[in-house]
């Protein structure tokens, strides 16, 4: 399941690059992404949906490094953004504003103004007050705002509660029953142009059934809109397709497409998707060095130089991600000194773990790769404990390139000021 990674003569490679060379060049902790792996998934989406007009809007929040955005922009991708900052990144990376959809429940006046000025493709609207605000900003700028309504189809995505978004208890979207009235209201507004309909039901979905259930609900609404004289140009099914971290068996992009295409073809609308995780997760690893081995009577702890500030998914969602050595012990993964280890960071919190109960043969100074770390890894990292954020590297063929240097500690407090007592 990790197409960009394999062992050659016992050494982990990403594409044609020996990972040890990356470690020697850039140190650890370090995120490494495969350009080819990113493009392969992007192309799997566009191929699988080739029979309908479509636009893949990569969800920037999953991994927003300019190099990643640039590779996707060059391939023709659109983008799903949730802030002015993400739009600025997309534009800095060469992405086109007219291929961007703007999601999120709390867009501010400034966000909307910037997006309209840049010529945003569509605002995915989540409430009546947002609709009014967008109309007002557009009027001030003498522009027309293209909008789509994010409907909450009330289907169970069967994923972790923190990343499930399509239930009526969630803060997201407009209830199915209220959608028609809100569209009718939108149709009366002078500076609003209705262009689409949108839903996103959650993240890391492994089954196709919830997507189909959500699509059925959205199609019902599209019929209702047509009956009321409201015609759309696109339907946006959000993101959410899961990936394999350890032993998950997510539906493949091809099967996902096969399940949805019969219904989508009949609609005659352009189909948008907003995938994040599925495009970048397995294109990336986080490299970390074993600093201290601490066997205790109850547990064995391997303390590594990455921590929850670098990768918070295990601490926040109890996410399980695979940990593999960058150099195989000569006798293979399981040797005489294989033991069960908790892989933990050096931060002062019990929640600071990256993996639990992993069978590994470890020595101080070894490098480990945490796989599946290309999505929601660096973008969720922080400076907790005054730890500089990791470096990021991209690999393509035989080349590797630094795409973000490791932060310096000095930079972390460079803009801070000592309190000045009154003279
Ligand atoms: N569109 C919208 C409106 C979203 O809210 C999201 C993700 C996506 C698209 C992309 O979903 P994806 O294809 O990546 O599943 N930090 C969590 C995941 C949070 C997802 C938030 N929304 C994690 O690390 O598991």
Q: Can you describe this structure in just a few lines?
A:
This protein is α/β, with parallel strands linked by helices and 423 residues long. It is built from twelve helices and 21 strands.
Q: Let me know the number of strands.
A: 21
Residues in helix, %: 25-40%
**Assigned CATH class of the largest domain:** Alpha Beta
Radius of gyration: 23 Å
Based on Cα principal axes, name the global outline: globular
- Write the CATH homologous superfamily of the largest domain: Alanine racemase
pLDDT below 50 for ≥5 consecutive residues: which ranges?
none
Number of helices: 12
Q: List all distinct small molecules, including ions and cofactors, that are bound in this structure.
A: ligand LLP
Strand fraction equals 25-35%
Cα separation of the termini: 65 Å
User: Structural class of the helix and strand makeup?
Assistant: alpha/beta
The CATH level-2 architecture of the largest domain is identified as Alpha-Beta Barrel
Q: What would you note in describing this structure?
A:
This protein has 423 residues and is of the alpha/beta class. The protein is 30% helix and 25% strand. The chain contains 12 helices and 21 strands. The protein has helices spanning 19-26, 35-48, 66-74, 84-92, 109-118, 128-141, 176-188, 209-227, 253-267, 277-280, 313-317, 409-413, and strands at residues 5-8, 11-14, 17-18, 30-34, 54-59, 78-81, 100-102, 122-125, 145-152, 174-175, 192-198, 234-236, 270-273, 284-295, 300-304, 323-325, 339-344, 353-360, 367-371, 391-396, 399-404. The strands form 3 sheets. Strands 4, 14, 15, 16, 17, 18, 19, 20 and 21 form a 9-stranded mixed beta sheet that branches. The protein has an 8-stranded parallel barrel with strand order 5-6-7-8-9-11-12-13, surrounded by 4 helices. Strands 1-2-3 form a 3-stranded antiparallel beta sheet. Strand 8, helix 6 (128-141) and strand 9 form a beta-alpha-beta unit. It binds ligand LLP. Residues 59, 62, 80, 103, 163, 200, 203-204, 238-241, 274-278, 313, 317, 376 line the site of ligand LLP.
């Amino acid at each position: 399941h990790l197409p960009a990674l394999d062992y050659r003569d016992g050494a982990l490679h990403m594409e044609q690059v020996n990972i040890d060379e990356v470690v020697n060049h850039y140190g650890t902790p370090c995120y490494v992404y495969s350009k080819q792996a990113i493009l392969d998934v992007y192309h799997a989406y566009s191929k699988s949906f080739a029979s309908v007009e479509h636009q893949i809007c990569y969800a920037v929040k999953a991994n927003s490094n300019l190099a990643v955005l640039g590779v996707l922009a060059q391939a023709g991708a659109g983008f799903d953004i949730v802030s002015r900052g993400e739009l600025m990144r997309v534009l800095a990376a060469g992405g086109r504003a007219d291929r961007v959809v703007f999601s999120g429940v709390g867009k501010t006046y400034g966000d909307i103004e910037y997006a309209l000025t840049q010529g945003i493709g569509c605002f995915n609207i989540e409430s009546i007050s947002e609709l009014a605000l967008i109309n007002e900003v557009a009027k001030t700028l003498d522009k027309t705002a293209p909008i789509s309504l994010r409907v909450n189809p009330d289907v169970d995505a069967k994923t972790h509660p923190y990343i499930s978004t399509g239930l009526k208890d969630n803060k997201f979207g407009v209830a199915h029953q209220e959608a028609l009235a809100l569209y009718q209201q939108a149709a009366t507004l002078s500076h609003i142009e209705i262009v689409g309909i949108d839903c996103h039901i959650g993240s890391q979905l492994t089954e196709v059934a919830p997507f189909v259930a959500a699509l059925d609900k959205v199609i019902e609404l599209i019929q209702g809109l047509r009956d009321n004289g409201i015609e759309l140009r696109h339907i946006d099914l959000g993101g959410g397709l899961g990936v394999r971290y350890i032993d998950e068996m997510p539906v493949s992009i091809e099967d996902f497409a096969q399940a949805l295409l019969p219904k989508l073809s009949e609609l005659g609308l352009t189909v948008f998707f907003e995938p994040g995780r599925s495009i970048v997760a397995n294109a990336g690893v986080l490299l970390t060095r074993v600093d201290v081995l601490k066997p205790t009577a109850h547990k064995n702890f391997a303390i590594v130089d990455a921590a929850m500030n670098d990768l918070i998914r295990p601490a926040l969602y109890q996410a399980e991600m695979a940990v593999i050595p960058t150099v195989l012990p000569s006798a293979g993964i399981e040797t005489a000194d294989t033991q069960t280890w908790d892989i933990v960071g050096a931060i002062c919190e019990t929640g600071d773990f990256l993996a639990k109960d992993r069978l590994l043969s470890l020595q101080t100074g070894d490098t480990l790769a945490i796989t599946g770390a290309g999505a929601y890894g660096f973008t969720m990292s922080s400076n907790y404990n005054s730890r500089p954020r990791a470096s990021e590297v991209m690999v393509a063929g035989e080349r590797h390139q630094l795409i973000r240097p490791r932060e310096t500690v000095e930079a972390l407090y460079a803009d801070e000021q000592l309190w000045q007592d009154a003279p």
